[in-house]
Amino acid sequence: MRRIRIFDTTLRDGEQSPGVNLMGQEKIEIARQLERLGVDIIEAGFPITSEGDLSAVRAIAREVRTPVIAALARTHTADIEAAAKALEAAAKPRIHVFTSFSAVHLQYMLRKSEDEVIAMSVASIEAARRYVDDVEFSGQDAMRSDPAFVFRAIAAAIAAGATTINIPDTVGYTTPEEFAALVRGVREKVPGGDKVHISVHCHDDLGLAVANTLAGLAAGADQCEVAVNGIGERAGNTSLEEVAMAIATRKDFFQMETGIDAKEIGRTSRLVSRLTGMPVQPNKAVVGANAFAHEAGIHQDGVIKERTTYEIMNPQDIGQGETQLVMGKHSGRHAFQKKLQALGYELPEAEQHELFRRFKALTDKKKQVTDQDVQSLVEDEIYRFDDSYELVHYHVSSAGGAPSTATVGVSTQSGAASGKVTREAAVGQGPVEALYRALQRATGLEADLKDYAIQSVGGGSDAQGEVRCSIAYVGQTFVGSGVSTDILEASALAYLHALNKAAAVRAQAARQHPTGREAI
Fold first, then answer.
1. What mean pLDDT comes out for the span 212-241?
2. H helices of 130-175, where?
3. Distance CA 493, CA 468 (A)
4. What b/e readout covers 276-287, taking b as 16+ CB neighbours within 10 angstroms?
5. Domain end position, chosen among 332, 358, 381
């Protein structure tokens, strides 16, 4: 197993993400977590850019002792001196010197010839070596550069004392095959190329950063430059967690290992997301909210029987909690039964069948069904009376300043009139009052509304509303509840639920006292 060094640039290249501005204490907090994660090198910042950045690098160098602490510098004397000053207290300091290699950079940015760039690089590396023993050298945009010049510049850098040579795909231009070829070229063709550490630094402009990084490592590089959650300039840097888990999961193929403590990955991702204000996309590999979530019925069934049918990593191994069975319209009966068990319900098969039918009906109205939604379905079923009446349809018309009107259709569920649909209409001061008056007429039960309350079930814009109401009927109080994504439907269901309880008690009294003298 080849040991791959993880060079984390979250605090330098990652902070260059548009809109990200980390305070000094926030940088220290991230650096401490990166130390717990087990990264080998932390690129703490670019000291020459501001006094704040210099202070942050100095604080990290003083407080974080296990990893190498690197500071970035251009091939300028002032940059080298600022980096050295920031790293004075570091237990393991590194100055990271960079220039540019591509013709377009030399022409428009540096306005220097190839020989001038090499001379400046050599002088800067020699200057950095006067302060530290560990010097890294990078040539921006190496993958759009003349390989002959790349090899010549790297050879000069090694001769000047660079201990790590970084090959950056600065604009995310290359492919895995091209990148691997250049890395092999540095190892095999450059004098001293087999005596230094070779690093790779890729950007994700074409979505190939991780693939290119892994190809570079397979070709002989032994360090990769990455950022937590893949943050960074434009489309971002190579994702730390994706590279680390690719190497760990496919150790049989890559024959590599890192010092990353996988159990800290989830915590690190969440910390960086919180402090940078950059949310992690749900379908992000390894750390996305959906990375270990399953909604499709076939997938859920497989995972229930054996997790590895659809998961190549264990979420608990990377600090991401447990596998999630997301309840939605694609969920199957087996997953629904598993969810009932997880919530503590042991129900007869007939009740499970009815609950699953109602669950499927709910998924047509609500994209994701939460645990609270399922609990409401169960409790509504468990505590349901043998209903005398069922809501078939309703319509409410309401406008500001005018009375509301409601029409309802109620089906009789028992007795000689079973199956009959009674339709009634009523007017009220508001839509709920109109709806309740229409239901009273349809059922023939005159009840007084005593209490009415609404609360959200779950969260989000498509959350269900649960309505609870109490009615007084012939001296007794009955409580009803209803749940729906439509609050008026929930109101109608709650009121009808209470009316059904009153009807059940009335029917029981009628059976006990057929003469009706002591009936309700």
1. 98
2. 147-160
3. 9
4. bebebeeebebb
5. 381
Mean pLDDT over the full length of the chain: 90
pLDDT for 152: 98
Structural domains in the chain (count): 3
* Rounded Cα distance, 100 and 170, in Å: 10
Greater confidence (201 vs 384) lies with: 201
The residue assigned the tokens 């068990």 is: 341
* 358 and 377 belong to one structural domain: yes
**Residue 234 confidence (pLDDT) above 90:** yes
Of the listed ranges 301-315, 319-333, 403-417, the one predicted with least confidence? 319-333
Output the six-digit token pair for 141. Answer: 């945009």
Task: Give the pairing type, strands 464-473 and 448-457.
Answer: antiparallel
3-state secondary structure of 465: strand
Structure token pair of residue 191: 């004098």
pLDDT-derived band of residue 462, with 50, 70 and 90 as boundaries? low
- Domain hosting residue 10, numbered range: 2-276
Contacts of 511 (CB under 8 A, 6+ apart): none
In the structure encoding, which two tokens stand for residue 222, read together? 């032994």
393, part of any domain: yes
